[in-house]
Amino acid sequence: MKIVIALGGNALINKRDKYLYSNLLKNIRKTCEHISGLIKNNKVVITHGNGSEIGYLMMQNEIARKKIPKMPLDVLGAETEGLIGYILQEQLSNILRKKRINKDIATLITQTLVSKKDPAFKDPTKFVGPFYTKREANVLKNKFVLKKDSNRGYRRVVPSPKPIRIIELKIISRLMNKNYVIIAAGGGGIPVIIENKKFKGVEAVIDKDLSSSCLGNDINADLLLILTDVDNVYLNYGEKNQKALRRLSVKEADRYLKDGQFPAGSMGPKIQAAINFLKNKKRRVIITSIENTENALRGKKGTLITK
C-alpha cells in the first residue's frame, strides 16, 4: 500500500514546550516511534509542517536585519526542509535499525508549483510562527498581519497559494519504486512560479496538507494519514457542544466545510485536502493524533473519511 503521512506541527514541537533543540529531538523521536510500524510493509512518503520553524526564522530575520541581510520566505522554507528533514531522517533511521526494518530514507528538498495569479497573494491566511496573546498581537499589528488561530491565540499570517504540482514528482516516484522512505514537501514545499519559462521562488508558504493531497494524487496513494494535535475531527470545536466525528463521507465533509465548521487556519485545509484526495477514487483519509496512529489504522480511533 502507498501511504502519504502528513505530520502536523505538533509532531515536531509541542505548543506547550519551549522551542529548543532538545524538545524538537524528543518530539520527533516519539513521532517516529508511532509511525515506524507503517513502514515495514508499505511504501511511504512523509510530509511535515514547518509553521513554528519558519516563523522563528522570520523572527531571526527581523532581529538580525541590521547586521545580516534578510533571506526571502522561499529560502527560509528550504532551510526548514533541511532542518526538519535531517532530524526526521536521523531519528527514523535509528528506530528502523533497532526494529530491524531494512529500509533506506531520503530527504528531498521539494519545490511546489503555484500560480502567480493566485488570489492568496492579496489575502494572507497561512498561520506561521508562535502564538501571541491579544496584548502582544496589538503591539505587533503594525509590523505583521496577525489573525486569531481558532481559540488558541494570535499568529502571523502569510500568503498561501494552492499547490498545482510537485516539481520533483518523478524523483519521488523512482525512490518509492526502489522501496525508499521519502521525506518530501516539507512545509508544503518551496513555492515556485514559472516566469519566462524558468522556475522562480515566491514569498509564500503552501499548506502542507494540500500539498500532501496533491502529492498523494500524483503518486496514486491508497491512504492519506493526517496526524495533528486532536484525536478526531470535531463539529463545534472548542465549544461546550463539540462533537467528535468518527466517520465522514466526502459529501458530508464538503457540507460541513461550506457551513464554516472547519476554520481556514486549522482543520479547514485538512478537510479540503481529504476532499481533493478522495475525488473519484476508492481511497481513505484518516485524521487523528500522533499518539493514536496505530489505533486509528485499526478503526478504533480518529476520523475516517471515504468517498
Describe this protein's structure.
This protein is an alpha/beta fold and 307 residues long. 36% of the residues lie in helices and 24% in strands. The strands form four sheets. The protein has an eight-stranded mixed beta sheet with strand order 3-9-2-1-12-16-17-15, sandwiched between helices. Helix 1 links the parallel strand 1 and strand 2. Helix 1 packs across helix 3 and helix 2 packs across helix 3. The longest helix has 26 residues.
Primary descriptors:
alpha/beta; four-stranded mixed β-sheet
Would you summarize the structure shown here?
This protein has about 300 residues and is an alpha/beta fold. The protein is about 35% helix and about 25% strand.
Strand order of the largest sheet: 3-9-2-1-12-16-17-15
Over the alpha carbons, how many angstroms does the gyration radius reach?
18 Å
Largest sheet: 8 strands, mixed
- The best one-word shape is globular
Extract low-pLDDT stretches. Answer: none
Overall number of strands? 17
Class inferred from helices and paired strands: alpha/beta
Question: Helicity level, as a percent range?
Answer: 25-40%
In percent terms, what proportion of residues is strand? 15-25%
Distance between the termini: 18 Å
